Amino acid sequence: MTLPPRAARHCWHAAINPLHATIYFSPDLGKEFAALGVTDRAAVNLASRSAAMGAVGAGAVTATFYNYRNDLIARHLPAVWETASPEQVLAARLRAADSTLRRLLGDETIASPEVAEAADLAMRATEACTRHGRTLYAAHADLPIPQEPHLRLWHATTLLREHRGDGHLAALLLAELDPLEALLSHTATGRGMTSAWIKSIRGWDQCDLDAATDRLRERGILDAAGDLTEQGAAVREQLETDTDRLDAAPYEHLGVEGLGRLAEIGGALVAKAIGAGAFPKDLFGKA
After folding, report:
1. How far apart are CA 94 and CA 79, in angstroms?
2. pTM of the full predicted structure?
3. Are 151 and 113 in contact (CB under 8 A)?
C-alpha cells in the first residue's frame, strides 16, 4: 500500500458511496418505476440494483445483496420482470439518477468542470477493478458508460461501490457475521442504519433483530445495552481493514493526488446533496 492509512476508505465512505446512494431515497426513482407499472417500494429497490444481472430470481439476489431477508426478495423477484424488463429498469434508473443529481446539485454544479474532473478520476479508478468473485461489480461493468459527466460520475461511483461491496461480503464471511448480525453490529457503531430502517428496507422483523442481538451478545460483540464491546469494535475494525485490502487496487491505481482530489470534489458534492435533503434524517444511528 502506498496510500495513507484509511485514505481510500475515507474517500469511499465520504464521497463515493453516498453519491451513488442518493438514488435509493429519491422520489424520482419511484416516479420512473411507477411509469413502468412497478409501485411497491421494495420491488423498486430490488429491481433497480439487481437489473444489471438480468432477470434473476430471489436466490441470486439474496446471495449478492447479503443482508436482505430472502422472504422479502422472493415476494418480488422474479415476478417484477413480468412487469418491467431489466433493460427498461436500467434505463429508468439512469433517468432517475439524472433528475436526482440535477435536483440535489443544481444545473450550474452539474455543468461545472469539477464534476467532469471527478468523473474522469472515478472512471480512472475503475480501470483497476477486477471481475472475478465480484458479481454485482462485474454485472455493472458490462453496462455502457454514459456520456454526460454527471452520469459518468454516478456510473463510476456505482462501479466502485459494488466493487468494494462484493469484497466486503468475503470479509463478512471471514468474520462469521450473518446478514442481520452484520447489519446490527454496523448499527452499533453509530454509522449504520437504524433498526426501523433495517426492518423497513431489508425485510426483517423485531423477532429477527432480537435473536441476532442475542447471538452478538453471546459472542461478546455487543454488551447488555446493545453497544459494541471492545472485542466487537475490534471485529468491526478488522472487517473494514480486510475490506480495504480487498478493495485497494482502484485507489492505488488512482494514486495519492488523484484520490485526494476525488475525495475533495466528491465530498463537496455529497455535502451539497445532503444539504438538499438527499437522505432521511433518521436513516443512520444506534436507535
Report:
1. 22
2. 0.96
3. no
Report d(CA 279, CA 137) in Å as an integer: 24
Considering only CA atoms, give the Rg of the chain.
19
The alpha carbon of residue 114 and the mean position of all alpha carbons in its chain are separated, in whole angstroms, by 23
Q: Are 217 and 223 in contact (CB under 8 A)?
A: yes
Give the cell for residue 171: 470479509
DSSP 221-254: SB-TTS-B-HHHHHHHHHHHHHHHHHTHHHHHHH
CA 159 – CA 137 distance, rounded (Å): 6
What is each CA distance from 204 to 71, 108, 187, 211, in whole angstroms? 9, 41, 14, 11
Confidence category of residue 209, pLDDT binned at 50, 70, 90: very high
Rounded Cα–Cα distance for residues 242 and 247 (Å):
9
First-to-last C-alpha distance (Å) of the chain: 36
Task: State how far Cα 15 lies from the chain centre.
Answer: 12
DSSP state of 13: I
1 pLDDT more than 80: no
Residue 187's alpha-carbon distances to 62, 162, 222, 263, 283, in angstroms, are 21, 20, 11, 24, 10
DSSP letter string, 165-203: HHHHHHHHHHHT--HHHHHHHHHTTTSSB-HHHHHHHH-
